[in-house]
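Q: Entry one of two.
A:
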Amino acid sequence: MANRIIRRVGDDVLRKVARPVDTINKSIITLLDDMAETMRSANGVGLAAPQVGILKRIVVIDVGSGLIELVNPEIIHAEGKQIEVEGCLSVPGKWGEVERPAKVVVKALNRNGEEIQIEGEGLLARALCHEIDHLDGELFIDKVIRFVEPDEK
């Protein structure tokens, strides 16, 4: 496993739409492992492949209940509303209130190529939406209702 460089706002790769993964092979498994290590090293709760310069539809998330690896994730159900403060490893030093669904259901493939569904509420729902946005070239700063100071977060 290797720590990868996290791309920052202003890098064009963050504004591009990621491509679906056709085959889960050794390079995809290595990417999943590297992304998990990179996310943990940066004290993040999620990381999308475009954030490490790879335009593939892959995300990793860990909100404290174990690592979630998603290949080709897609939100298939969303309900409710929550407004919470978010930050992003690609936008260091900025935080803002963002409206997200309170609950989501996401379908994706796991590292073995098996279709899975993840249900998330609260922080997990926010993380799933935030990371999937990255796959479509969207950043949380595009959706901020109000930026907040570090002492407000």
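Q: Entry two of two.
A:
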Amino acid sequence: MRSEKSRKGVLIGVVAGVGCLLVAPVLLIVGALTLMLLGRALAPLPIPDGEALALRDEQILGTWRDDSGGLLVLREDGTFTSDGVCGDFKGDDLAATAAPDPGSGTWEHRESEETETDTPMSEVHLTFTPSEVWTRYEARGTSRKAVLWAFVGDPDSGDVCVLDKVRGTAG
């Protein structure tokens, strides 16, 4: 009888040990995924430094460059040219699309308010011709160092396009 209880005890110990070995990795994986998702939800979006800015047309005119060397030239007559510039480009159906490269078209300066703070800010809207592909950038930074920027794709992806003003150009 004693050896039967001993065997049952060993069997229970083995089953419990195997159960722990099977459950522990699952709990670790679930815990790690939960921490990753929580960290992502709490992490700030990669918005450029500075505040939303309301710029004058004179400050917007000129050449802007992205991190990859793409160029956007905004002219006083409301036209632009671009060469490899980053952005979140849309077609007439609002579907993501590629911008003509190199491209040209018209630009428009609009003023709106930043959603979270109601701070006035400039938006630059580009419409490529003749394709009607369009995009928009928001102004941010400081009066001494403004940038034009946009999320590329889903804002939760963290992909951004940032354009810096090239020194020595209009504005």
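A: Comment on entry two: Residues 51-165 form a domain with the Lipocalin fold (CATH 2.40.128). The beta strands are 51-52, 62-66, 71-74, 79-83, 103-113, 120-128, 134-141, 146-151, 160-165.
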